[in-house]
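Quick log. Single chain, no ligands specified.
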Amino acid sequence: MDKEQLLSLLQPEIEQINQAMAAEFATIKSARLAEVVDHGIFNGGKRIRPLLTVLIARLVAFTRMPEGIADEEELSPPPDLYHLAMVFEFLHGASLLHDDVIDHADTRRGKKTANQVWDASTAILAGDYLHTRAMTLAGLVGGERCLALIGEATSAMIDAEFLQAQNVADTNLSEENYFAVLRGKTGALIGAACEVGACFAGADKEQRAAIRTFGDALGLAFQVVDDLLDYLGDEDSTGKAIGNDFAEGKMTLPLIYAIKEGPADKGKILTDLLAGQAPERQARIREVTTIIDEAGGFSYARQGADTLIAAALEALEAFKDCETKDTLQALAHYVLSRNK
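-> predicted structure:
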């Protein structure tokens, strides 16, 4: 299945998710708050997290259904599933609003950030609203177990931010620490989106374990590819400056590998830059990219992402073959090939 076929299959679900979110925002009493959250949520975005909730729920429901009861296309997801799915877009949107304030970011996905259009306080409050509303919906629609999974994921996201800050301060070259950050920043929410969908559909213990493996591997691969795009992506596609992570001193997999495994003199250039100032790191990003490439850092990270996606696809073998399973497999491949 190519990218265009995948997007065509996913578009009806994306529209359902967008409609559910728009209806939710229509209930906001403050016109300004409604405008800010609309800017944060509908300013692009691939809807991967809520899509995973819907698709996993459908896959589990079809797998658990006795043979011959109904065809897959006859399964109609309950409206509550879309309300539960949009929780993950709200949480993701809240984290982006807060991150842009913390990073003093000017643009997001090629457009002005909320803190630039309005101000930092407004952006923070809008993020707080999205977070609070997400947790409320999680409890109302998903129940205690889903709320617990989502709470654990949001806690992991905050822990990971602190761990990443410490890794930057210490120039930590541990891959274990790197993946610990990834599991918190990206993997936890993607994993929770998958597991919540499984719980909603009544997955048994073994099925939930398989979905947990799928979500964890997919989330880690997603962020490894993101780290590659930071050096190799196109600014018009990614919506952010190339080399932004390096300018901020973030320890990503290609950089860690180049410092540890590349020529010592080139590694020293990288560590000296990391010990210096952000403007110089940004100014020398082309040189840095060449050093990492020649050291094999990008190839190493790409191989890591490939291995993670293979693990994710293997986890899906526990479920019946169906169109939804094909779509999830295609979505996993899309994670590897995406350019933004």
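DSSP finds 16 helices and two strands in the chain.
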